[in-house]
């Protein structure tokens, strides 16, 4: 079955499931209003249907992400490598020989055929460590694709350990005058400065020399499962919740500003506080949306559990706030705006920021210093017949615009 057909089928199934979810929710609300029995059974059914809807939504989103990645790569991962004149199989075989040979800076003495030699010469860069492409580089792309905030935020690569930016958040003053009145000086705009420090993310593990000599393991699978996916989860998590000590400054780490949340204050995020610690109302979501200036390309940000909760909310006229579009590539909307699912967002709980609303590209800056590098150390654990492998990447992140994001914080 083609991906396009599979997405079409998932969309059709989603439509049926969401209709059942809303019908069940309506029946439950009616019984609650009339104080009738049978609510427990309906609540249990609603939970099961909502869980099924979440699963279908996730399958649909993953298929669409896969198709988008394939489209970006010009057809497939292998096609991208072919365009770069690199043979996938030969590179994979050559890289194993290179590892077993001690990862030398020169590959002249390795027993490589011409195709393997060409593949390695094009994709190994000895710079104190070894940055390997396309496989480590391709894993880097896979890492990016697993982090929605990286897709939506601003991303820049620098050559130093600190990024310096400027706040253009003030404005020049103006005034009205008569035809021949004297002109006095008006206030000038003040520009602020901020910096984003580069942080280090690493993985270190040992492999026996015998395993390197005898194993036929797949390098791409090993690197992807052992390092890249873990780094992806860590990076995504800290871009959301990082403490700015050894980690990035997270999207939710800003100082909350509950008084006059519409009014801009540098270094603070306008925040709406819910009335309940474990509930969100439609009016609170509408108020949250109203605090953000209309010029920003905004979206709601939440995790899947919060999405499941909000899908059942209605406005004062009995209309559902959540709008599902049964078209491929068209995201669902909440109050007319798209919703981004970040699993690192907190669940609805006392004191948690379960929902944010804003323009993520304008709000959050990600800084890349280096891609993922690998260094083999045959000396540290040589007495035990082991080789130490070190993976590392350097990255930073922080809020750069305090006006383009708003929080909804639970009481």
Give a written overview of the molecule.
The chain is 39% helix and 23% strand. The chain has 411 residues and is α/β, with parallel strands linked by helices. The protein folds into three domains: 3-77; 83-126, no CATH class; 132-170 and 189-303 and 342-411, Major capsid protein gp5 (Major capsid protein gp5 fold). An eight-stranded mixed sheet has the order 7-8-16-13-9-12-11-10. A four-stranded mixed sheet has the order 3-14-15-6. The longest helix has 34 residues, at 39-72. The radius of gyration is 26 Å and the shape is flat. It starts with a helix and ends with a strand.
Short description:
This protein is an alpha/beta fold. The chain has helices at 3-34, 39-72, 77-83, 88-100, 114-123, 135-145, 148-152, 209-214, 219-241, 282-290, 304-310, 360-363; strands spanning 124-126, 130-132, 154-157, 162-167, 192-197, 199-208, 255-257, 268-273, 299-302, 322-323, 333-334, 337-341, 353-358, 364-377, 386-399, 405-409. It folds into three domains: 3-77; 83-126, no CATH class; 132-170 and 189-303 and 342-411, Major capsid protein gp5 (Major capsid protein gp5 fold).
């Amino acid at each position: 079955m083609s991906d396009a057909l599979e997405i079409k089928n998932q969309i059709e199934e989603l439509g049926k499931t969401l209709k059942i979810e809303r019908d069940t929710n309506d029946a439950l609300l009616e019984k609650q209003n009339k104080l009738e029995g049978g609510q427990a059974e309906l609540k249990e059914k609603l939970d099961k249907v909502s869980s099924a809807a979440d699963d279908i939504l996730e399958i649909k989103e993953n298929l669409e992400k896969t198709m988008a990645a394939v489209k970006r790569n010009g057809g497939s991962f292998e096609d991208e490598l072919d365009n770069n004149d690199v043979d996938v199989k030969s590179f994979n075989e050559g890289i194993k020989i290179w590892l077993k040979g001690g990862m030398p800076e020169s590959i002249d003495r390795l027993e490589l055929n011409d195709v393997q030699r060409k593949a390695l010469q094009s994709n190994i860069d000895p710079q104190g460590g070894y940055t390997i492409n396309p496989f480590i580089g391709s894993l880097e792309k896979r890492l990016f694709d697993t982090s929605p905030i990286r897709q939506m935020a601003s991303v820049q690569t620098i050559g130093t350990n600190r990024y310096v930016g400027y706040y253009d958040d003030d404005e020049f003053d103006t005034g009205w005058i008569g035809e021949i009145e004297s002109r006095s000086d008006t206030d000038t705009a003040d520009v602020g400065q901020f910096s984003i420090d580069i942080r280090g993310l690493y993985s270190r593990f040992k492999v026996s020399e015998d395993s390197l000599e005898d194993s036929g393991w797949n390098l791409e699978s090993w690197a992807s499962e052992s390092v890249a996916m873990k780094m992806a989860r860590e990076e995504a998590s800290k871009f959301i919740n990082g403490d700015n000590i050894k980690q990035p400054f997270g999207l939710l780490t800003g100082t909350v500003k509950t008084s006059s949340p519409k009014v801009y204050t540098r270094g603070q995020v306008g925040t709406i506080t819910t009335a309940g610690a474990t509930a969100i109302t439609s009016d609170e979501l509408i108020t949250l949306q109203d605090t953000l200036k209309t010029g920003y390309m905004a979206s709601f940000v939440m995790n899947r559990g919060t999405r499941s909760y909000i899908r059942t909310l209605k406005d004062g006229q009995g209309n559902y706030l959540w709008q599902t579009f049964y078209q491929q590539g068209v995201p669902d909307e909440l109050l007319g705006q798209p919703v981004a699912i970040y699993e690192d967002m907190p669940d609805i709980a006392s004191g948690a920021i379960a929902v944010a609303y804003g323009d993520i590209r304008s709000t959050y800056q990600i800084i890349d210093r280096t891609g993922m590098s690998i260094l083999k150390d045959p000396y540290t654990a040589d007495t035990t017949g082991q080789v130490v492998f070190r993976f590392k990447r350097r990255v930073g992140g922080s809020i750069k615009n305090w006006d383009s994001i708003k929080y909804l914080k639970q009481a």
